[in-house]
Amino acid sequence: MADEIAVVGGIDTHTDFHQAAVIDSIGRHLATAQFATTPQGYRRLLDWLQSHGEVLAVGIEGTGAYGAEIARFLTANSVTVVEVDRPDRKARRDNGKSDPIDAYGAATAVLSGRAGGTPKARNGIVEAIRALRVVRKSAVKARTQTINQIRTLIVTAPSVVRDRLRGLSARELVDTLARSRPAGELHDPACAVRIALRRLARRYQALDEEIKEADKEIRPLVTQAAPRLVVLPGVGPETAGQLLTSAGDNPDRLLSEAAFAHLCGAAPVPASSGRTNRHRLNRGGDRQANSALHTVVLVRMKYDQRTQEYVARRTAEGMTKKDVIRCLKRFVAREIYRHLPHVTHSTTLLPQTV
User: What's the pTM?
Assistant: First the structure.
């Protein structure tokens, strides 16, 4: 009978539908079907999986994108969800590419143990921080593009416009242009440039205000989520928000501080050969989290006495600045992990934080 066997599910996620597959405990393909990405579709998918036997786990490709809601639904219904990476190019060339093949591949990856990652929960305060930071990040990018456009226009503007704006800081430049009252005919290049500069300056001000509003919303959420994190040297609401977002609402899925360092791309990578014994920077992992660690390290190198003493000592030993920063990132990742919310910390014999 179906309820006497154990099965593993696999889901290939898409915008409007999910392709599901189910295999038994020895890897035999049992069935595959499509389900709509609606609450009713999720319920039918779960019922379909359970109709084949006891569901041990479900592997989902794309839990951070199209599969976010189905992962939440299955977890809420006490189904173990495993995050599955997309197959590499060699596997795709060998096995072909289709939705059923990908769904079966997700199930097989779980059964074989090749996939074992726990997806982010995405159901708490950190998910709220992530959503607000998406808007803030795009506003910061647009503001930078706007000031670059202003400076480019000034470079090519007629002298009558350009000479009046020489030597002004970015803030003075934006304020001056936003208050300007261009006069003249639009077919005159000088008049057209003045109008364009005023519009860009007002756009910059609007984006600047949007960023300030986002900061007011994000700061208390970050403080509430990790009050011990934001008081660490060099860690502000922005860097803390990024590190919390990378860890997710369930940081306990990261079983050790080494796993968190690996997630942030701060775990040292061996680069030894012959008589050379060294490590290099890790260029993998979450690059946004790595950037946040880099910011913390730069701030500490400038203002934190402990870090300055460490840099001086390692530099005297012959280490390059890049290698010193790599070590500092690893130390900072260790300290950050200890202050993530709801993390059960184990003892470690690694050196103390710098």
Answer: 0.82
Of 8-12, 280-284, 317-321, the one with minimum mean pLDDT is 280-284
Distance CA 251, CA 256 (A): 10
Dihedral angle computed from the Cα positions of residues 37, 40, 43 and 47, in that order, rounded to the nearest 10 degrees = -110
Torsion of the alpha carbons at 232, 237, 243 and 247, rounded to the nearest 10 = 100
Average pLDDT score over residue span 42-48: 97
**Cα–Cα separations (whole angstroms), residue 178 to 148, 155, 202, 203:** 16, 18, 5, 9
| Single-letter code of the amino acid located at 324 | V
pLDDT of res. 270: 83
**Token pair listed for 255:** 């079983």
C-alpha to C-alpha distances, 65 to 29, 37, 99, nearest whole angstrom: 26, 13, 17
